[in-house]
């Protein structure tokens, strides 16, 4: 099912995951593979905090479009229709760090240190852009199998829906 620009549309593929407000599918444009976060606005409209939830989605989109770091999931495109908000992101195959630890158990010290350094670098970068993630947890750290080496996982921070932009010591977003 195509979406996006008519001259270079994306094709929607299988479901990769589901969250509280969105589902994530694999998608492609030509030979390139991506992930797309699909937010059904009709479903959100039935919720009492509709305005707040839509604002969170738009905030995530606008913040991610301007972030460029090797340990942050890159946003490639945003499309909005009357019924959906679609966020096209880099496809990060490897799953959540939470699932990895739940399946494989405790990480070795070197591997844990390697992951921690990457997360710290990503957090340092977003803080340098006056952004606070506010939902950093194992479920929002994705394993990049394409960049990983044996015993050393490469990771990317994802899900900026709860993030805040900080200006002059005060938060611009309200909760």
UniProtKB/TrEMBL annotation:
An annotated GO cellular component: cytoplasm
Residues that hold ATP according to the record: 37
UniProt key word Nucleotide-binding: yes
GO molecular-function terms, A-Z: ATP binding; protein serine/threonine kinase activity
InterPro entries reported in the protein's UniProt record: Kinase-like_dom_sf, Prot_kinase_dom, Protein_kinase_ATP_BS, Ser/Thr_kinase_AS
UniProt key word Kinase: yes
Pfam families (UniProt xref): Pkinase
Protein's UniProt name: Protein kinase domain-containing protein
UniProt similarity note: Belongs to the protein kinase superfamily.
Organism annotation: Zooxanthella nutricula
Domain Protein kinase: 10-175
GO-annotated biological processes: intracellular signal transduction
Family annotation (Gene3D superfamilies): Transferase(Phosphotransferase) domain 1 (1.10.510.10)
Keywords: ATP-binding, Kinase, Nucleotide-binding, Serine/threonine-protein kinase, Transferase
């Amino acid at each position: 099912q195509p979406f996006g620009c008519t001259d270079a549309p994306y094709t929607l593929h299988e479901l990769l995951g589901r969250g509280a407000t969105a589902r994530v599918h694999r998608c492609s444009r030509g030979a390139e593979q991506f992930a797309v976060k699909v937010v059904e606005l009709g479903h959100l409209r039935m919720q009492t905090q509709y305005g707040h939830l839509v604002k969170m989605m738009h905030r995530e989109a606008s913040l991610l479009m301007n972030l460029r770091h090797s340990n942050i999931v890159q946003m490639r495109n945003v499309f909005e229709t009357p019924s959906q908000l679609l966020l096209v992101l880099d496809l990060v195959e490897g799953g959540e760090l939470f699932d990895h630890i739940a399946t494989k158990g405790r990480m070795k010290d070197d591997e844990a240190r390697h992951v921690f350094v990457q997360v710290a670098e990503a957090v340092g970068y977003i803080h340098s852009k006056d952004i606070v993630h506010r939902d950093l947890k194992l479920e929002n750290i994705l394993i990049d199998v394409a960049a990983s080496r044996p015993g050393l996982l490469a990771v990317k921070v994802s899900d900026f829906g709860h993030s805040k932009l900080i200006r002059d010591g005060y938060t611009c977003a309200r909760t």
